[in-house]
Write a structure and sequence with these properties.
Elements lengths: L1 E5 L3 H4 L1 H6 L9 E3 L3 E10 L4 E5 L4 E5 L2 E11 L2 E10 L2 E3 L4 H15 L2 E6 L1
Antiparallel strand pairs: 1-9, 2-8, 3-7, 4-9, 5-6, 6-7
Length: 121
């Protein structure tokens, strides 16, 4: 039998990031007046009697001044570490380029909705 661990959606809880993807287009350019970075790490300890059968693939992507990364790795025989990093450098995304940034953020949200799959031994 299989069990699933849901990975918390960091982007959905970060008001700033979630607001960037809310609209399908912009009337004005998007200015980032200062740098922004965050790193959120989750560590999962797998209970005795279970084994890993699947962890999400890493995802690294960027567009102009915005970089996002997601990684999940086995760090011990019974532990998985999930790391979500966001980096935004001071810069501008024009209103014409906004759809590309929004697509990056939406794809990242899909990756965050992944599961860690466990199988009972």
């Amino acid at each position: 039998s299989f069990s699933y661990i849901t990975i918390p959606a960091v982007m959905q809880k970060d008001y700033f990031l979630s607001s960037l993807r809310r609209y399908s287009s912009r009337e004005n350019d998007l200015y980032f007046s200062s740098d922004y970075s965050s790193e959120v790490v989750f560590e999962y300890e797998i209970p005795e009697g279970y084994s890993f059968t699947g962890i999400p693939e890493s995802f690294n992507s960027s567009f102009k001044c915005v970089s996002l990364s997601f990684s999940a790795s086995k760090t011990a025989s019974n532990k998985i570490t999930v790391t979500v990093k966001t980096s935004i450098k001071k810069g501008v995304v024009t209103k014409e380029e906004y759809s590309q940034l929004r697509l990056l953020l939406l794809n990242f949200s899909i990756k965050e909705d992944s599961f860690i799959v466990l199988e009972k031994k």
